[in-house]
Amino acid sequence: MSGIISSPGVGSGLNVQSIVSQLLQADFGPQQTLLTNQQNGLNSQLSAFGAINSDASSISSALKTLGSLTPSYNASSSNSALVGATSDGTATPGSYNVSVSALAQAQSLASTTFSSPTTAVGTGTLTFQFGSYNNTTTPPTFTANSATSPTSITVDSSNNTLQGVADSINQANFGVSATVVNNGSGYQLALTSSAGTDHQLNITDSGSSLGAFTYSGTNGASTLSQTVAAQNAQLNISGIAVSSQSNTVTNAVTGVTLNLSGVTTSPVTVTVGPNTGAVTQALQSFVTAYNSFSQDVTKYASYDAKTQSAGILLGDPTVQNLVNLFQNGVVQRISGAPANYQNLMALGITANTNGTLSLNAGTLSTAMTSNYTGVVTALQTIGTQLGTTVNSMTGPNGIITARTNSINQQLTNIQTQFSDLNTRMQQEQSTLMAQYTAMDTLVANLKSTGNYLSAQLGSLPSASSSSSSSSSSTTPGG
């Protein structure tokens, strides 16, 4: 008699799944553990190299900034509230006494009084031209500003009110602002030009209906009245008289912009000196980037005696090459640099016992005071020299890229080994399950046969019953 086993172990009473699992673990578990440990280690290395590569990139960026340094000069003022000073970097060192006797101001004109902002004012065309007047002649002589072109405003039924004319002038955006002012008894159109005598207004109309808005000088046939006269800024720079159309004076001192805000009672000192702040910041950025690298090297490539644990990159030649490169860069001779600044240590860089660097700002400042261009040249040179080497190590063909590519290849190989191992485990599992299922079926059949025989034997008459029957048949009188 045979039977079918629907679930392994039912026939034999054994936990076939557990037995097979333990057998597989005994055969393949050590290999899985080995591959997993290798994978975890490589991933840790990859993460550490990611941090190291980021640090090296930051150092490379800082070296690029050093390599791009050029001598530049800042402008400062002893009284920036009255005379501000900025430099575009092309200025040469110097000190200037600046006195301001007048600020540049814009011409302002006003119309006659109208009863309302919505009062109709006529139609036609108003033409505006910037220039300058000679008001000593009759009529005044107007010289147009050759740097500007006339602007025409059309006044028709859509804008022929006092407010409409003001809005149209503002919308044209040609350097004149217009507003309607309530003077208490009526409304006037107020116009303001740009600062300077070259921005006085000449306004003509194409028809007599707009005659209330013309201007041709203070002694001319003007219907608009001048309320504020145009004026140039008047200043004196170290004994030289200067006139400026604007309160922003850009052409008096080469590379320096003076921003005039008030009339001075005593000279304001404007000083042009080396831009030491940019140099200090650039060198400090290098130190900061290097220290981040040093801290990660300590984290990943050193041995901690207290915890008796080694960093994941301890002894790694790639990391050691980078360490040697940067450390040598600090002390290496800077070719072409002045005699006093042959390496970064001469410019204030010092090495600390924990592997980091520090910048002595005082030492750097003293060096820049002594020879500003020499310091800039030295830093520019070391930035270029060391930066080129770093880029070759961190670029697409650099040692860090090669190292990370190698790790990624090893991880790929481990994934292949995991896949192969999994295939073998599945095959082994199928084989074992087939064997145990066959055994289970055999045991189940044997049990079934045994149960059948037991049942058949149990139905046969027992020996005692047969003996009793025989005695009863021979009793006398039966």
Automatic annotation (TrEMBL):
**Annotated Flagellar hook-associated protein 2 C-terminal domain residues:** 230-447
The subcellular localization recorded is: Secreted; Bacterial flagellum
Region described as Disordered:
458-478
Q: Where are the transmembrane segments?
A: none
The cellular component terms of Gene Ontology attached to this UniProt record, alphabetical and capped at eight, are:
bacterial-type flagellum filament cap; bacterial-type flagellum hook; extracellular region
The UniProt record lists the keyword Secreted: yes
Which UniProt keyword terms apply here?
A: Bacterial flagellum, Coiled coil, Secreted
Q: Where is the Flagellar hook-associated protein 2 N-terminal domain?
A: 12-107
Q: GO biological process annotations for this chain's record?
A: bacterial-type flagellum-dependent cell motility; cell adhesion
> What Pfam families does this protein map onto?
FliD_C, FliD_N
The family note in this entry says: Belongs to the FliD family.
Q: Spell out the subunit comment.
A: Homopentamer.
Role this protein plays: Required for morphogenesis and for the elongation of the flagellar filament by facilitating polymerization of the flagellin monomers at the tip of growing filament. Forms a capping structure, which prevents flagellin subunits (transported through the central channel of the flagellum) from leaking out without polymerization at the distal end.
Report what the protein is called: Flagellar hook-associated protein 2
* Lineage, highest ranks first: Bacteria, Pseudomonadati, Pseudomonadota, Gammaproteobacteria, Chromatiales
